[in-house]
């Protein structure tokens, strides 16, 4: 597969850097302002150790290097369940990637087009995200780390209102900011989807939306290019099964 940054004329992505955050006891969950779903409550304390999180999501070009290096055929990179899924599914690339006559292409909502190496990789499973993180010498963030780090960013981003309906390359930034924490791609975390301490489901039909799914799924954070504008919060929790790839799901690394 092509791995040169500049396919489809996209801007080169900013250099990948890890931004440090101090640990400590931090409040996680809905802060009481505006709307929330029941799974964002109650707000509670989480103890974090010092950690670092990548300044931007992993790009198509970087993920191509993982493929070219044999990442899909190296069992040491994969969770046991992920390796079983890998072998049984025969997956060798993100869901909508296509290589036609030597050209790197990708299927978007508007049809097949050139694949931009500097756009965030998307439509990857948790298993693929985990294996890529291992291959790169990093890991996936926990959802508490992700939320804590995201508080330094506004919730503005590339949502459905931009009408791009695909992840866009990160803008160059020399100020050490976290880029694309919101919008573009949902970001897999290493955290299982479960109740917060003291969780109570909402009553009625609303109570069936979240609580009954708190098993065997992983948390994603940050929204995507298909998320409605104004819908995102720092505490918003999305959740999918680890093999799911149809969502605009991507990767942000941590250490």
Please give a quick description of this structure:
The protein has 255 residues and is α+β, with helices and mostly antiparallel strands. The chain is 16% helix and 19% strand. The chain has one domain: paralog of FGE (formylglycine-generating enzyme).
CATH topology: paralog of FGE (formylglycine-generating enzyme)
- In round numbers, the mean pLDDT is 92
Shape: globular
Number of domains: 1
Q: Strand order of the main beta sheet, please?
A: 10-9-8-11
Please bin the fraction of helical residues. 10-25%
Number of helices: 5
CATH superfamily: paralog of FGE (formylglycine-generating enzyme)
Q: Tags for this entry?
A:
paralog of FGE (formylglycine-generating enzyme), four-stranded mixed sheet, globular, single chain, alpha+beta, three-stranded antiparallel sheet
Structure description:
With 255 residues, this protein is an alpha+beta fold. Helices cover 16% and strands 19% of the residues. The protein is built from 5 helices and 11 strands; from the N terminus they run ββββααβββααβαβββ. The strands form 4 sheets. Strands 10-9-8-11 form a 4-stranded mixed sheet. Strands 5-6-7 form a 3-stranded antiparallel sheet, with no helix packed on it. A two-stranded antiparallel ribbon has the order 1-4. Helix 2 (80-89) packs across helix 3. The protein is globular and about 55 Å long.
